[in-house]
Amino acid sequence: MSNEYVTINDVTLRDGMHAIRHQYTKEQIAEVTRLIDASGADIIEATHGDGLGGSSIQFGFSKETEKDIITTAVDNAKNAKVSVLLLPGIGTIDHLKRANEWGAQVVRVATHCTEADVSEQHIKTANELGMETVGFLMMAHRTSPENLLNEAKKMASYGATTIYVVDSAGALTMDDTRRRISLFKENLDTEIGFHGHNNLSLGVANSIAAYEEGATRIDASLAGMGAGAGNTATEQLVAVLNKLEIANGVDLYKSMDAAENVIKPIMERPVQIDSLSLTLGYTGVYSSFLLFAERAGKEYGVDPRDILVEIANMGAVGGQEDWIIGVAQDLAKKQKVYA
Ligand SMILES: C[C@H](O)CC(=O)C(=O)O
Ligand SMILES: [Mn+2]
């Protein structure tokens, strides 16, 4: 195994938004940015959980404005670059231009794993703006490694300089991860990244497997603060990287302290593997559906795991959060009929 430096892209302030219904305050964003920056992470992502333009009735309104979220992160990051997430269709070129004006240096253009075509305009514009441009192929378990590579090649041809395998549902096994990353490594000239969710308890293991196959950018968040059972926890990842003597810039104690003393107290619902988040990974459902399914289960008196199973059968992808209520209503009706 080579000992290439691994770039840590911290997503506490973006994926972590899902875990608290996008309610970070400006003060929290400032403090968390300072802590992540001081711990040595290379890139700090800050936006609504669903990226630029995500604050809406469909995904939930964020507490702070997009401008405040981004500028607060930019103002408090002394060393790290600030990245934003953009899902074409939710975020627009105008959102991207504004984020750039507010100081974001990196954009991660995210599409469903079979929909890279929709990223062309956004990736090209980001490059014209002089931003570092990353392609982010979500729900990577939902297509074959070969198809995923074809989609990655499209993003590379548009100008993305890093392409991510994104395990949005925390559903990839280590072999699944290895097959996807190794194909990328053999066939792409770009840098390769991996974004994991811990629903099957494989966040760190998959991240290390990804590194071993050639990924040099890994996403992580303090205390795993993120959708579902959370992301790969920074402090856990760094402990393993250090034991494996893999070069990285993050201070272990600083990340541990920030996770314990600052992030865990912010959590409304513990970010952990429980029956519901485990079901996400087991059935392959988008991690950010967790709170929606939990709420709908309570409201309609049905088991939220049954909602997720049905959502998985229907093949829902990110952006189809509104299906959850319909599924809960149907399950509730069936329960009455058969009672
Ligand atoms: C919009 C999603 O939360 C992006 C992401 O982090 C994922 O797919 O995972
Ligand atoms: Mn995620």
In brief:
It contains 14 helices and 8 strands. By secondary structure, it is α/β, with parallel strands linked by helices. The chain has an 8-stranded parallel β-barrel, surrounded by 6 helices.
Could you characterize the architecture of this molecule?
By secondary structure, the chain is α/β, with parallel strands linked by helices. It folds into two domains: 260 residues, TIM Barrel (Alpha-Beta Barrel); 64 residues, Helicase, Ruva Protein, domain 3 (Orthogonal Bundle), CATH 1.10.8. Helix content is 47%, strand content 12%. It has 14 helices and eight strands. It has an eight-stranded parallel barrel, surrounded by six helices. Helix 2 runs parallel beside helix 3, helix 12 packs across helix 13 and helix 13 crosses helix 14. The site of the ligand C[C@H](O)CC(=O)C(=O)O has 14 residues, from loops. Manganese (II) ion binds next to loops.
How can the largest sheet be summarized? 8 strands, parallel, barrel
With strands numbered from the N-terminus, the spatial order across the biggest sheet is 1-2-3-4-5-6-7-8
CATH topology (level 3) name of the largest domain: TIM Barrel
Strand percentage, roughly?
Answer: 5-15%
> What's the SSE pattern?
EHHEHEHEHEHEHEHEHHHHHH
Shape: globular
| CATH H-level homologous superfamily name of the largest domain | Aldolase class I
Bound molecule kinds, no repeats: the ligand C[C@H](O)CC(=O)C(=O)O, manganese (II) ion
What Rg is obtained from the alpha carbons, in whole angstroms?
A: 19 Å
Distance between the termini: 59 Å
Portion of residues within helices = 40-55%
Structural domain count: 2
Judged by helices, strands and strand pairing, the structural class is alpha/beta
Number of strands: 8
Mean pLDDT value = 97
Name given to the CATH architecture of the largest domain: Alpha-Beta Barrel
- Uncertain segments of ≥5 residues (pLDDT<50)? none
CATH class wording of the largest domain: Alpha Beta
Number of helices: 14
Catalytic activity: (S)-4-hydroxy-2-oxohexanoate = propanal + pyruvate; (S)-4-hydroxy-2-oxopentanoate = acetaldehyde + pyruvate
Family: Belongs to the 4-hydroxy-2-oxovalerate aldolase family.
EC number: 4.1.3.39
Keywords: Aromatic hydrocarbons catabolism, Lyase, Manganese, Metal-binding
